[in-house]
């Protein structure tokens, strides 16, 4: 009998048993110095990290640490987290109220989660990272009520429900970079916030289609990296509990949209960056020029390259691919070639030169990004059918991106609408050529007429993405600094895992 009693007690106190006994989301608790707030989906976690800890220094926005400091962490290990795909990126989403208030204590946690640094292999096999920048990302989300007291009412009046911070984690080094935002993962901030109970019916609206009503949620999120507001709109369904209370839930599995680089079809998530101009520098064109000459030393001699330095959603250095010489096509198709090494050095020098011109830290790998622009091949099927306006190859953290960072895509969509930029020149050439061909051909493609729909069709290594930008007038403007009201793109996302992550 005693053995049976002990066995039953052990069973009741096991983590699985605890999690089944705890009611789902009965209330939200808050983190304090003495107790860690736990999601009610999980057992109360008191476990401490017993393995070797990585020495950390004060939190840095871009550069590796050098002065270790003793961590004073009261954070649960393992830590409740959700693993989500947003667009062509994947990342760990965490309720920020579970973390210490001091950002200097975040670094050890994030490096442990991702398995960084991995200087020898660069694969992050000891953590959740995947060895490439698009898989080494963390997003911290908290209710707007948890923001600084003087900001809460102001943000609420602007339709903001949550505040979030994007973290780019270094792969081979211990860099923790919060200098910029991630457009792809931004698309899932609203869905995560609703899943966690941070946002409810107040964000839901409905439209009538025939006899049916469709429900959507528009979640306003304040991004602390860029100090900008981003809205995500997605379909929702309602779940009724035993007390008859209805709770909205993101419906991400509808057959509505597909995006290049991701197989399958899923619900459409509309990502809208409000007033995206000057996200880091305060100006859409930081140098007040549509084109800026960047002079660098390459192969022992000085050379100047044309660039457009544009800051919308994230600052980006745009380079004309035709100026990079014959090694550019080889670089984009074979990143391990000798030519790619040479061109990579050239691009990094150009990125750093552009950063300096924009007043940004050239040592911060995450910002600004650099992207190579080129025209779509004349007479190609995409050109004839009007499916592509411009081709882009972007680098992220020094590596050629397999698709395009969404903030770069959005920035490019904005730049293409600013007369005089490199992007504007390329798009004009493509559309003018199609116009001439369509008027001289008796079998003109009907899709050519899409050139007037306000979208810029961008070809990247994984496919095509359509980006829209809306401009407004700005009184007193000198004609260079246009006011961008919004930049929009359609993304999809998927829940991959919900549980705990060890750091």
Total count of strands: 20
Tally of distinct domains:
2
Shape: globular
Which class of the largest domain in CATH terms?
Alpha Beta
Helix content: 10-25%
**Helix-strand makeup class:** alpha+beta
Under the CATH scheme, the architecture of the largest domain is Roll
Parts with pLDDT < 50 across at least 5 consecutive residues: 4-72, 333-341, 442-451
Calculate the terminal CA-CA distance, rounded to whole Å. 41 Å
Write down the Rg.
Answer: 24 Å
**CATH superfamily membership of the largest domain, which one?**
Diaminopimelate Epimerase, Chain A, domain 1
Major beta sheet summary: 20 strands, mixed
Number of DSSP helical runs: 11
Quote the CATH topology of the largest domain. Answer: Diaminopimelate Epimerase, Chain A, domain 1
The overall average pLDDT, rounded, is 82
Strand content: 25-35%
Organism: Dendrothele bispora (strain CBS 962.96)
Keywords: Isomerase
GO molecular function, one term: isomerase activity
Family: Belongs to the PrpF family.
């Amino acid at each position: 009998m005693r053995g049976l009693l002990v066995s039953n007690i052990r069973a009741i106190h096991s983590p699985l048993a605890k999690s089944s006994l705890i009611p789902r989301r009965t209330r939200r608790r808050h983190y304090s110095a003495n107790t860690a707030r736990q999601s009610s989906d999980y057992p109360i976690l008191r476990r401490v990290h017993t393995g070797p800890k990585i020495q950390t220094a004060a939190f840095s926005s871009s550069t590796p640490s050098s002065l270790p400091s003793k961590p004073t962490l009261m954070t649960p290990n393992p830590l409740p987290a959700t693993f989500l795909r947003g667009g062509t990126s994947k990342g760990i989403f965490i309720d920020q109220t579970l973390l210490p208030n001091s950002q200097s204590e975040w670094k050890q946690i994030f490096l442990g989660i991702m398995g960084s640094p991995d200087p020898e292999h660069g694969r992050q096999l000891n953590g959740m990272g995947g060895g490439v920048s698009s898989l080494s990302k963390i997003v911290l989300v908290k209710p707007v009520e948890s923001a600084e007291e003087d900001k809460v009412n102001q943000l609420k009046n602007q339709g903001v429900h949550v505040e979030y911070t994007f973290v780019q984690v270094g792969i081979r080094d211990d860099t923790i970079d919060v200098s910029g935002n991630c457009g792809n993962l931004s698309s899932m901030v609203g869905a995560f916030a609703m899943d966690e109970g941070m946002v409810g019916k107040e964000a839901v609206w409905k439209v009538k289609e025939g006899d049916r009503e469709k429900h959507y949620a528009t979640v306003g999120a304040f991004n602390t990296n860029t100090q900008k507001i981003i809205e995500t709109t997605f379909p929702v369904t309602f779940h009724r509990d035993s007390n008859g209370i209805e709770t909205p839930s993101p419906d991400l599995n509808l057959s509505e949209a597909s995006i290049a680089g991701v197989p399958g079809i899923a619900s459409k998530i509309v990502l809208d960056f409000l007033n995206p101009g000057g996200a880091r520098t305060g100006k859409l064109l930081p140098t007040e020029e549509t084109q800026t000459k960047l002079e660098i030393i390459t192969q022992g001699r000085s050379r100047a390259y044309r660039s457009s330095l544009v800051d919308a959603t994230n600052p980006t250095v745009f380079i004309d691919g035709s100026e990079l010489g014959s090694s550019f096509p080889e670089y984009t198709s074979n990143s391990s070639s000798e030519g790619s090494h040479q061109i990579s050095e050239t691009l990094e020098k150009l990125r750093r030169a552009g950063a300096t011109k924009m007043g940004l830290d050239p040592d911060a790998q995450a910002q600004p990004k650099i992207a190579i622009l080129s025209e779509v091949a004349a007479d190609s099927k995409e050109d004839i059918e009007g499916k592509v306006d411009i081709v882009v190859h972007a680098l992220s953290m020094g590596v050629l991106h397999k698709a395009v960072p969404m903030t770069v895509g959005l920035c490019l969509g904005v730049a293409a609408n600013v007369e005089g930029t490199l992007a504007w020149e390329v798009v004009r050439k493509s559309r003018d050529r199609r116009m001439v061909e369509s008027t001289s051909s008796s079998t003109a493609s009907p899709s050519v007429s899409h050139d007037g729909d306000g979208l810029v069709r961008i070809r990247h290594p994984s496919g095509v993405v359509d980006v829209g930008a809306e401009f407004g007038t700005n009184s007193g403007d000198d004609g260079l600094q246009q006011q961008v009201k919004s930049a929009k793109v359609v993304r999809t996302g998927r829940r991959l895992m919900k549980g705990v992550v060890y750091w």
